[in-house]
Structure formats: structure tokens, C-alpha cells
Amino acid sequence: MERAQLLRIQSRLKRCLTPAFCLDYDGTLAPIVTNPAAARLPDGVAALLQQLSDRHPTAIVSGRAVEKLQAGRGAWVDVPGVYYAGSHGFEIRGPNGSQLNYTVAAQLLPEVRRALEVLHAKLAPIPGVQIEDNKFVASVHTRNVSAADLPAVDAVVNGLLEEQPLLTRTAGIHVIEVRPQIHWHKGKAMGWLIKCMCEMLGLPSGADSRKATAMPIFIGDDVSDEDAFAELRGGRGIPIVVRAEAPLRRSTAAELWLRDPQQVAEFLAMFLNS
């Protein structure tokens, strides 16, 4: 990150007591891989997150299910001091040992279960399709699907939504996601997380007062992260996109840019001694 960008961040952080980190997982903390089920943190990143969360409120905000990120043996992150917002924020949990457990649209979970069954049955003949159960989100990974077969995948998803109007479709990088059709996304989840973080730390948490308490720093790489970037524009936070190339001005609502997960880790490490 260039010096001018770092100075912008420093200037904004002077207005608050602490930064509050909200971090996407795939493509941000962990590199994108061919098999989505194999996405893991690089060596040293879990320890970095532990140190960061010891100093500043820190959350993972991901499309992955919370259980994959946090819960017990084999979890992908499972850092005790970190907050988790899984399924694009439809399920939120506090650090290990806390009582924070918040679920959005639980009544629509049976609809998502049914959608997963339909997707498995109808997409099975298409080579390369990988369907992932992210609890409140049915993720259809298309990274390994040929261009010729993508229209067939689209047709199956669109047909499903005609039969299940309580669900909606969103798109990411090589993924189609089916989730509850309500006005909730990573941006909304981030705002709720910041409020809870302030409350658990005993800091002012009201809508106005927390602006001077915790400055959100959201880092993400995908389309679903744009909702969070938009919430932070105009000095309300620090939105940072992860892209291999510098983004065009109107291609993202983020205001700052990092190249890859390695640069993300280097950026976060700067806050360990701040």
C-alpha cells in the first residue's frame, strides 16, 4: 500500500479509539484455490489474527458457514478472540466463550435445505460443478465448469428460483449463491457487529457515539463485499478491496486497494505495534 493511502488511514483512525477489522475469508485472508473446500489460511495467519484480536475488535465476515470457520476441531480459523459472521452475515457468533449468537431469517432455512437438494439433483450431470452447503446459502461453484456449460447452470438456478420465490440469487467470483430474499447483507452484518463489539468492550455503542469509538476497516475481494464497502464510503470507515490489479475508479465502492492475501497479512501486521 502506498504511503498516501497509509496517511489517509492514519488520518481517519485519529477520530476514534480503535480500528475494528471486518475481514472476508476467500481471496482476502486465504488464497483462492481450485477446490473451494481446500481453502485454508496460509502459515502464520491464524497467529496474526490472534494477536490482532488481542489488540483490536476483529471479525471474519464470509459467505462460508460459521461452523466451517469457527466450530471446533478442523475449523478453518477458530481463533478464540475473533467474531464470526457466516453465510454473508445471516449467522453471527461472538468469540469463543461469549453468549453472542444472532441468526437472521431462520424461518427460511428449510427453503435453503430444499434448494440444496434440487441443485444437487439437477446439476449433477454438469461436469465441474461443486455445490457447497453454507447453511443459509447454497453456493454453486463454477470455477471448474466450461464456458459451454455455464448457461445450463444458470437455467437450473433460475428454474429453482421460479419455484422458490422466497430465495434470491447473487453472484460472486466463479460462484452463484442462492439465499433468503431479505434486505440483509455483509454491510448490514458489519454494522451490527461493530455495535456488539463496542458493547462487549464496554465502549459507547449508540449509532452516533460509536462513530468515535470504533472505525470499521473492511477488507474483501468479491462482489458480496461491495455492500460493506458502500456502507463505509464518505469517511464512515475504511473500505479496502483485494485485487490483482489496481481497480478502476467506478468498478468498486472501496477507496483503497491491496494486491493479494499476502499484502493483506502485511497490512494487518502493521497494527500489532500501533
Unreliable runs, pLDDT <50, ≥5 residues?
none
Separation, N- and C-terminal Cα atoms:
17 Å
Number of helical elements: 8
**What number is the mean pLDDT?**
92
Major sheet: 8 strands, mixed
Main sheet strand line-up: 5-4-3-2-1-10-11-12
Number of strands: 12
Classification by helices and strands: alpha/beta
Q: Any idea what the shape is?
A: globular
Order of helices and strands: HEHEHEEEHEEHEEHEHEEH
Strand content: 15-25%
Q: What proportion of the residues is helical, as a percent range?
A: 25-40%
Pfam family, one: Trehalose_PPase
Catalytic activity: alpha,alpha-trehalose 6-phosphate + H2O = alpha,alpha-trehalose + phosphate
Protein name: Trehalose 6-phosphate phosphatase
EC number: 3.1.3.12
Write the layout of secondary structure elements.
Layout: H1 3-13, E1 18-23, H2 45-55, E2 58-61, H3 66-69, E3 83-86, E4 91-93, E5 101-103, H4 109-123, E6 130-133, E7 138-141, H5 150-163, E8 167-172, E9 175-180, H6 186-200, E10 214-220, H7 226-232, E11 238-242, E12 256-258, H8 261-269
Parallel strand pairs: 1-2, 1-10, 2-3, 10-11, 11-12
Antiparallel strand pairs: 3-4, 4-5, 6-7, 7-9, 8-9
Describe the model:
With 274 residues, this protein is an alpha/beta fold. Among the domains are: 20-28 and 65-71 and 84-104 and 184-220, no CATH class; 107-180, 2-Layer Sandwich (Alpha-Beta Plaits). Helix content is 31%, strand content 20%. It contains eight helices and twelve strands. Strands 5-4-3-2-1-10-11-12 form an eight-stranded mixed β-sheet, with helices on both faces. The longest helix has 15 residues, at 109-123. The radius of gyration is 18 Å and the shape is globular. Its EC number is 3.1.3.12. Its cofactor is a divalent metal cation. This is Trehalose 6-phosphate phosphatase. Pathway: Glycan biosynthesis; trehalose biosynthesis.
